[in-house]
């Protein structure tokens, strides 16, 4: 027979309710602040990922192509130094050696009217970009020559406008994803770890024998987690804005209810894990098993649009995807809350479903 | 006035996947009067903790009734729990809090003041360690803090579940003094223990429990009296001549082992007086029956702690 949890949870104690809640909130909040591993996982780890991913995705996009010119390359004389950084090599072998080392993006040789381009194989992406830039440079020179020969003949010109007004630097799509992931690990690891601790130290059992109700205690515990999530979000967005140039929209404040809703969903997942795991390492392992794949199929670290199709399909089942999308919409694109109603609906439904599962499967006897 | 505790025919069976059916509590009844120091003594696995948890209201029995201070422990009622103080086997503390923060949190749950919390910390001798984190306290200090938390609400009825388990002898003696004080203050105390000498030293009455059943309930002195066992007097080798041993034994039993004489007497006063006159007191040892003998008698098997 299982514990009579419904009975154990009945009613707030007359009178002592709010005082009990406040003191429990204070005790649990103090415990959270003094637990260095919590601070690391909820605050520092997401910031570390932001630094890491911003430098992986952010580096090189605005930098000039590094060109090794072999001998005299006349076409480079008219090049904009913002687009090309030119070094010299005595012969082609030396230039190719430089390419192999990854110290340049392309080598170029001009033989009369022929400009021969050797893009880097070591770094094929920047090699291709450098080759493209060099081709464009050659075209520009050709157009100048032809226009001078036939003045009055109209020529086509291209103008490149970046999507979203050029505002979408990598940090703009990285920050919401990493924040969603940070909220997820704080919720899942936090709830799972707490429940395993309670199984060990029987704190919940002890509190059930005080005049305060278990409902008051669980309310205080969840409140601490929600406040932590808000603090985590504020710190994360502040660092992203001030340190990495994230531009915050006027709707950024709406990240608060989104994060609270997401936290509720992730806490529910953590409760299920905490119900299964018997030890702290098991809880941490299972939490990782859930949050890591979820991060990869939710576009937390890598844009979903660039992911394989099966990943995109999987992402529809992941609450992190919807939190990520909703945060991106309101924080980065400045869309109003009404635009993210579908995401809110999914998160709420997911949280309710998982909470129901954890409620039904949880063995209260173990606490 | 109602009894502090009235328990009638409690039964609780656990069904484990590997262990099969285990009758943890198998028809337990007892009654504890107000102000009594009541002990539940038994080896590990006897069902002491399960019984206590049912009485406290943490578990529902399969059958049977419990009345605590005249009312049922279920459903959870603040009016009842406010009058109870509980110390569990696991040290149930809020993580990363100091001793003072810990007891002040519990004080708030019982509606007690911070002054009361400080007073309890002082009572259990932890005033100097008020600012030490709970996880840094020694085992004995943690148990004392746990008892202080149980007392902070000024309870009428206190449950202590094996508070001295895994403590060194000195820490155990310190806790005994503390528990005597709790009882002397007029509270009803229920203690589970698997230490014979602890039950003997502290309890007004003891229930001997084994294999889910209460085998007998009596005061420690009453148990030993009813055992009606002889007193064993041991005299060291070389103190008595052989014929004197026979004289002193009179019609009672004695044994000689390598010169050491062991008398078993119903009249220790006569024997000891005679030994004093003979001046045969060096290395003298007197052993009366104790609860260990009682356990053997009551359960039919050796005590194994």
Quick synopsis:
The complex is a heterodimer of chains A (367) and B (305). Chain A is α/β, with parallel strands linked by helices.
Helix content of chain B: 25-40%
Main-sheet strand order of chain B equals: 5-6-7-3-8-9
| Arithmetic mean pLDDT of chain B | 90
Amino- and carboxy-terminal Cα gap of chain A = 15 Å
Mean pLDDT across residues of chain A = 85
Report the CATH C-level class of the largest domain in chain B. Answer: Alpha Beta
Structure class of chain B: alpha/beta
The total beta strand count of chain B reads: 13
Low-confidence segments of chain A: 1-16
Determine the strand fraction of chain A and express it as a percent band.
5-15%
User: Which outline of chain A best applies?
Assistant: elongated
How do the helices and strands follow one another from N- to C-terminus of chain A?
A: HHHEEHEEHHHHHHHHH
Rg of chain A, Cα atoms, Å: 28 Å
Q: With helices defined by DSSP (H or I, 4 residues minimum), what is the helix count of chain B?
A: 11
Query: What is the CATH topology classification name of the largest domain in chain B?
Result: Rossmann fold
Give the fraction of residues assigned to helices of chain A.
55-70%
Query: What is the CATH architecture annotation of the largest domain in chain B?
Result: 3-Layer(aba) Sandwich
Oligomer: heterodimer
Task: Characterize the main sheet of chain A.
Answer: 4 strands, mixed
Gap between N and C termini of chain B:
37 Å
């Amino acid at each position: 027979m299982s514990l009579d949890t419904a009975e154990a949870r009945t009613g707030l104690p007359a009178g002592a309710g709010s005082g009990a809640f406040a003191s429990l909130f204070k005790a649990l909040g103090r415990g959270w602040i003094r637990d260095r591993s919590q601070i690391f996982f909820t605050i520092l780890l997401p910031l570390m990922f932001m630094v890491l991913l911003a430098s992986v995705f952010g580096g090189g996009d605005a930098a000039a192509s590094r060109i090794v010119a072999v001998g005299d390359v006349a076409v480079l004389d008219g090049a904009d130094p913002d687009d090309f950084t030119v070094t010299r090599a005595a012969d082609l072998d030396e230039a190719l050696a430089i390419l192999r080392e990854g110290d340049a993006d392309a080598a170029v040789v001009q033989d009369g009217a022929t400009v021969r381009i050797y893009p880097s194989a070591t770094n094929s992406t920047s090699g291709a970009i450098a080759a493209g830039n060099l081709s464009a440079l050659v075209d520009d020179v050709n157009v100048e020559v032809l226009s001078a020969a036939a003045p009055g003949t109209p020529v086509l010109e291209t103008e490149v406008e970046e999507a979203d007004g050029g505002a979408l630097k990598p940090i703009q799509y990285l920050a919401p994803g990493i924040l969603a992931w940070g909220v997820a690990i704080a919720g899942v690891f936090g709830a799972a770890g707490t429940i395993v601790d309670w199984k060990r130290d029987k704190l919940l059992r002890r509190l059930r024998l005080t005049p305060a109700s278990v409902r008051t205690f669980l309310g205080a515990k969840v409140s601490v987690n929600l406040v932590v999530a808000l603090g985590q979000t504020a710190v994360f967005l502040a660092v992203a804005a001030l340190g990495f140039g994230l531009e915050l929209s006027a709707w950024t404040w709406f990240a608060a209810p989104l994060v609270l809703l997401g936290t509720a969903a992730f806490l529910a997942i953590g409760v299920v894990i905490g119900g299964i795991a018997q030890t702290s390492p098991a809880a941490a392992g299972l939490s990782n098993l859930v949050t890591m794949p979820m991060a990869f199929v939710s576009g937390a670290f890598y844009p979903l649009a660039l992911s394989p199709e099966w990943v995109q399909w999987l992402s529809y089942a992941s609450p992190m995807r919807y939190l990520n999308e909703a945060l991106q919409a309101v924080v980065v694109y400045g869309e109003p809350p009404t635009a993210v109603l579908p995401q809110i609906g999914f998160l709420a439904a997911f949280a309710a479903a998982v909470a129901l599962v954890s409620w039904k499967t949880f063995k209260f006897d173990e606490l | 006035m109602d009894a502090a505790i009235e328990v009638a025919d409690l039964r609780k069976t656990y069904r484990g996947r590997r262990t099969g059916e285990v009758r943890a509590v198998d028809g337990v009844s007892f009654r504890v009067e107000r102000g009594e120091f009541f002990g539940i003594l038994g080896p590990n696995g006897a069902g002491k903790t399960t019984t206590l948890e049912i009485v406290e209201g943490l578990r529902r029995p399969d059958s049977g009734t419990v009345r605590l201070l005249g009312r049922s422990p279920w459903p959870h009622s603040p009016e009842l729990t406010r009058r109870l103080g509980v110390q569990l086997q696991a040290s149930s503390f809020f993580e990363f809090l100091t001793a003072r923060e810990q007891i002040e949190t519990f004080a708030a749950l019982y509606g007690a003041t911070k002054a009361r919390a400080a007073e309890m910390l002082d009572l259990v001798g932890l005033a100097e360690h008020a600012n030490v984190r709970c996880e840094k306290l020694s085992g004995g200090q943690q148990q004392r803090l746990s008892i202080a938390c149980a007392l902070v609400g000024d309870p009428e009825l206190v449950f202590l579940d094996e508070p001295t388990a895994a403590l060194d002898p000195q820490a155990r003696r310190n806790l005994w003094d503390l528990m005597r004080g709790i009882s002397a203050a007029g509270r009803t105390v229920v203690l589970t223990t698997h230490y014979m000498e602890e039950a003997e030293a502290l309890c007004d009455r003891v229930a001997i429990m084994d294999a889910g059943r209460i085998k007998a309930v009596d005061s420690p002195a009453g148990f030993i009296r009813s055992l009606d066992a002889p007193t064993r007097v041991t005299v060291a080798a070389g103190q008595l001549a052989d014929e004197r041993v026979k004289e002193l034994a009179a019609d009672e039993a004695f044994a000689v082992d390598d010169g050491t004489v062991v008398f078993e007497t119903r009249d220790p006063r006569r024997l000891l007086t005679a030994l004093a006159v003979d001046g045969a007191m060096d290395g003298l040892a007197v052993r009366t029956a104790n609860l260990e003998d009682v356990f053997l008698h009551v359960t039919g098997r050796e005590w194994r702690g």
